[in-house]
Amino acid sequence: MSIGIEPPTKKMKMILEDGDFIMKTIDKCIEDIDNSKNNLEPVLGDDFGETLQLVKVFVGITKDPKDLSKIVTTLNEKVPLKQLQHLKRVRKKKVILCPASYIIGASSIQQFIESTVMELQDSFQYFKEMDVPLTAPRLQKQFKEYNKIWSCNFHPNAYLEKLTSGDFFNSVDLNNHRTYMKMAFEVSRWYIQHSNIINSIDDVYKNINGAIVVDPTIQSVVAVSFDNRENNPIQHSAMLAIDNVAKTQNGGVWFETDYKSNEKLSVSDELLTYLKLKFPSVKFGSREYISKRDSATDECSKNSNDGPYLCTGYYVYLIREPCFMCSMALVHARAKRIFFCLDNIYFGALKSKTKLQTKSSLNHHFEVFTGFL
Amino acid sequence: MVDFMKRALELASEALDAQEVPVGCVFTIGNTIVAESRNCVNVTRNPTRHAEINCIDFILEHCKANNIDYNTYFTNISVYVTVEPCIMCAAALQNLKVKEVVYGCANDRFGGKTVLDVSEFYVQYYELRGNLLAAEAMALLKQFYKGTNPNAPESKVRKKKDN
Question: What sequence ranges are listed for the domain CMP/dCMP-type deaminase (chain B) (predicted)?
Answer without folding.
Answer: 1-125
